[in-house]
Amino acid sequence: MSSPRTPTHPHQPVVAGLLLAAGGGRRLGGRPKALLEHRGRPLVEHAVRTLREGGCGPVHVVLGAAADRVREEADLTGCAVRDNPAWEEGMGSSLRVGLASLGPADAVLVLLVDQPGIGAEAVARVRAAYRSRSSLAAAAYGGRRGHPVLFGADRWDGIAAGAEGDQGARAYLRAHADAITLVECGDVAQAYDIDTPEDLRHLR
C-alpha cells in the first residue's frame, strides 16, 4: 500500500510593505507628516493598514522627524520600525534604510505616508503585478507613473545605489522604464501629496 502523498503548494511570494514616513513637513510648519491626523488617527497608522489590507507583509516603517513621538503616539504594533538619522537628506536616504531592513522577501511594495488617497485596492493591484524577483511595477494615474511601486528583490541593490536626495528611486525607474509594468489605479485612488497647508483639506 503506497503512503499518502504530501500535497505540494506553489511558492507564495513574500511581498513586504515598506512605508516611508520620515518627512518633517517643512512646508507644513515643521509638523511631522507621520503624525498628521486623518479620521482621528495619525497618517502613519492609515498607511500601515493600507499596506496590510492590500496583501503586503511584513510591514516595515522608516521614521525620521520626531521618531520618538511617532513611536509614542502611533500604534505600529507588528511593524519593523527603523529610524533614518539622515532623514533631512531626503527620501533617498529613507529608501536605503528601508531596503536594508527587509531581510528575506521576494519583493517590496513602497508607499509614502503623505498619500492617503491611495488605499488598499491600489496596493493590491500593484502587488498582483509581481511575476519574479526581477519584477518592476508601479501604479499609474491616467497613464502617468506614480505610487505605490513594487521592486523585485533582485533590483534592491541597484535601487539603493542610486537613491540620493529627494529622488528616491526616480533615477533607477527612468533608466529601466522599459521594464516597468504600469498598473492603472486612477479609478480607485488619488495620488495627491500632503505637502502644503492647502493640501490639509484632504484630511478629515
TrEMBL record:
Short name of any one Pfam family annotated for the protein: NTP_transf_3
Entry-linked Gene3D superfamilies: Spore Coat Polysaccharide Biosynthesis Protein SpsA, Chain A
Domain MobA-like NTP transferase span(s) in chain numbering: 17-177
Domain of life per record: Bacteria
InterPro entries in the record: MobA-like_NTP_Trfase, Nucleotide-diphossugar_trans
CDD domains recorded: GT_2_like_f
PANTHER family assigned to the protein according to its UniProt record, in alphabetical order: MOLYBDENUM COFACTOR CYTIDYLYLTRANSFERASE
Name of the protein in question: Nucleotidyltransferase family protein
Biological source species: Streptomyces kurssanovii
